[in-house]
Amino acid sequence: MNQVSQPAGFDTAAEVVPETVQSATTSVAEPPTGSDDQTLPAQPSVSEAVGGVKQSWYLGIDCGTTGFSAVLLDRVSQKLHPIYWRERGGLEAETKSYRLPTAVYLPAQPLTSHGLSETRVAVGSQAIALALRDRDAIAVDTLALPGGPELTPELFIQNIKPYLKVGIPHYATATDSWEPVIQWSDYRQIPLSWLQQALQSLLQTLSPVTSNSDVICAANGLDAPALKSALAQLEGVILGYPANWPDTYNFNLREAVLEAKLVSRPEQIFFVEDAIAAVLSELRNPNRSQWKGGTLVINAGATTSEMVLVNLPDHLPDLTHSDFSLRSLPYAGNVIDQDIICQLLHPQWFRQSRTANRSNVVETQWHWQAEASALDGLSWDSLGLDTIPLPIPGEPDLETRHRLQQRLESSPLGQGLLEAARHLKLILQHEEQFTFELGDQRWMIMRRQLESQVFLPFIQRLNRELNVLLSQTGLPMQAINQAICTGGTASLPAIARWLRQKLPNATIIQDTYQGDRSLNIGDKTAYSEDIDDVTTSGAAEPKTAILGDRLVSCSRVAYGLAALPLYPQVLDLPRQQYGDYFLLLELLRAFPSQPVSIAGIMQLLERRGINTHSCQLHILALLEGHLPPGLVPLEQDRNCLTESSKQYLDGHALTAAPLFLKEGNQVYRPNLEQCRRLQEYLSQVMANTKQTLEEPFAVNLSLAVE
Length: 706
Prior knowledge:
alpha+beta, six-stranded mixed β-sheet, 20 helices, 32 strands
């Protein structure tokens, strides 16, 4: 049967895209494209709504590592409007994009007291183009200056997401500087506050009043005045986050949304796990869903690979957050790129000098060359990869991988190597071999080498994680009826083949993306129809229609985030109301100077309006000395900080002694000196934030719209 994969059951204002062909048991799907759902009667667009018809607007934003996607929801009509971006003054057909690259380019200008200049910055594809221009210039400088590259004063920032969980940006009086500071490369240090403000610049492209870039947004089904009106009266913004990431990440995202003026109050910002949002994107409205039973989602992008398993009830309004079981692994696309470099490009037996005899080199139509021709003269040995430890494939090994990333980001050749790895990963899904040149080296890599030495360890790791998830839930593999693979890394054909064997009764829905099937070859663009054989034995091999420039890449997660107001019972209410930082502050405010039992502590907090039953485990963890991760960076995150930032955080001695000393059976006495230190530190951290954390966040997402 033919079906376009999209959030079923919603009336969505968007362009119609071609169908995707699937077998009865397997589908290879485009991410939700916003095609009109013909099962519902047509609804008038907002621009046509007159006579006092009420709208209730929510904005779902998927803040991915490499790209942003956003979808607007009118909760009253249940109509979804995917957002796209284009350059000011550009031709819409040439610049329209449903995925804004997560990249910001800061010109060489004086900084304000808070960090970034207030002048216009370049974002998205404009930022990438400027960065490539500078890389070429730096490569020339590197050839001229063997002692090291003279880095330009401009700053290119991308891959922001992983750093936003490290800590909360704040001005430290002890160092008279913004802390913490990220060791971005061997030569460059970036305050975390700059990364947060770069995120703010990206979010401001969604604001009708605060954008300071040449990129503006539009929406399917809404004219410009209607979109501006909707964005100006948002009732809520819904953001995703990786499962098990600390409250620090949510705090920083919420702060950036408030600074971008998308909404005015912190309680208007909601969070749901990315993998759960992917499930919501596929459900029909609560009364008309065709999906039942065991459902698996694998959401793998650039930073994390996540799994969620849920047994969908017959009556979807009964679905709650506790029904979802999640696993998260810091191993995804960026790590795979590193594994390609370490396993296939760095070993001497895989490469040869460009001056060697080329008689045995077979050229293919997929021959790729780096953007910067100045890289041709750079020596491979200048990377110095033999001087640092290299990670083992299949292992996250965050410390080693961050050191490798720093080294690669330190030179134009290393940056070109990362670019080559990304192209190799895509091209070898369609070709048996890939030939390319970079610096003074040449490679010819075979598909079987990529699959055996890079993809296989990744799939084996995913298999172990899925086994743990199945064991935790007690759900047999045969009971899984459908599995969704979403995110750029989850679109690998190897993942579909593995799931086809692992889950014999499941329909496999694998999102595909323009970047996977559209690759520049000289002056033309090629689209591949081959998705690989992911069907059961004897079934017809599925093919994907050639979508050309009509392919829409608005993420599935963004659709699910926007749909959260239609499934308010899925919200993790305790985490939404009582973040770890709020609970810590409340403990410090409420705790008397004398010993108190756990029961007495709970009574004190309840008198302050806290529902201790819903957040009891978090309170007990704080009493046992487990500070919110990111208040003091975790050991695995400290590796990305500068030495001075590490010393500054050590100087506070926040973890040198416990906040509360346990006396007898369930009785705690406050360590008054340590409590004083922590309160002073928190005062510094919160001094310049819009979030005061004086009261629990009121949650009105479940209120019916009149």
